[in-house]
Design brief:
The structure holds 2 protein chains of 2 kinds. Chain A is an all-alpha fold. Helix content of chain A is 74%, strand content 0%. Chain A has helices at residues 2-27, 35-53, 58-69, 71-79, 84-89, 91-119. In chain A, α1 (2-27) crosses α2 and α1 crosses α3 (58-69). The radius of gyration of chain A is 21 Å and the shape is extended. Chain B folds into 2 domains: 1-80, no CATH class; 98-254, no CATH class. In chain B, 76% of the residues lie in helices and 0% in strands. Classes of the chains: A mainly alpha, B mainly alpha. At the A-B interface, α1, α2, α3, α4 and α5 of A face α2, α3, α4, α5 and α7 of B. Chain B: This is Malonate transporter MadM subunit.
Chain lengths: 136, 254
Amino acid sequence: MVIFGTALLAACYLAGIAIGEGIAVLIGVKANVGGVGIAMMLLIAAIHKMQKLGFYVPETARGVTFWASMYIPVVVAMASTQNVIVAVRSGPLAILAAVLTFSVCFFFVGVINRIIERSNPDADPLAATHDTVKGQ
Amino acid sequence: MFHLLEKTILEGQLVTAFAFIGLVIWISNLLGKHLTGGRVAGSAIAVLAGLALAWLGGSITGKAKGLADIAEFGGLALMGGAMMRDFTIVATASEVHVDEAKKAGWLGFIALLLGTVLPFVVGVSVAFAFGYRDPVALTTIGAGAVTYIVGPVTGAAIGASSDVIALSIATGVVKAILVMVFTSVFAGPMRLNNPQAAMVFGGLAGTVSGVSAGLAATDRRLVPYGALVATFHTGFGCLLGPSILFLAVKAMFG
């Protein structure tokens, strides 16, 4: 049933947030420490285990994937409730930070992929796709 | 007649929010398809539209919660609130396949680590240059440079103000759009021509919408590999942001 998937997701969410709160108390931080990330790992592990046991049937999966596909709409809703007026006043910051981040990331992607190419000329273990990339 | 409609909307605010956000995303997809020729994903336009609507709501009401301060749109506060946001983000982890993820190997992990730490350092530096000194604000803006999800999740966890969270989302959204538009342009210099390279790219560039749209414009078959690591990226950032990275910033500026 679809609710089993949603219930599994809810259980992982609650457990993750609870562990995050627990870590926060342990290290003395006034914040949930990585609760969302821990919940994600729990869900990955739970689904992996259930798939092996054959419990993760498509109908159960739908109870999870529906919420996964709702994340962009939720983020849009979240964006529409932010205090943008104040943020707009410091607009150059957002653009400058984004452009610099973007440049640094693209530079490092190039460097790492060149290292892979050099250390392993056949770094293409899954499928040959390079013939389809334009300009190569 | 109008009164009847208003009563219905006010009594079903969350349902109204679902319908309204659906409309916003539908229009955004049309704009993305026809105005930008599919170069900018509809989801990125929708997030920008959301921020624009928040600006509109803020200038009408003069309050801090964007469009949600208008009674008819009050449901947006629940739909876009911390509970629903974290719940749906956790759900995206279901799209990760452990066996396939293992193929990325240690290089994928290094890309993931660099893709979290480098944008964070750049974001914190720029925020510092613009005069921010509060560790909470610095961390939130730095996390926004990782992705527009990690920014607000981190900000909410460490108690950042709404304007700083909005700024971190804006940073992440601008970055996502840059990734969408310029991935295919720089695919050559980035050697983005095989699944493993796509995984490295997904780990470093981060934003799922940016990576999947950017790779789709480069070579459709690379999309799942990039998106796979990028999905880890958000969880990784949400894990590091409010914990190690915040503590590091606090130790330096606190």
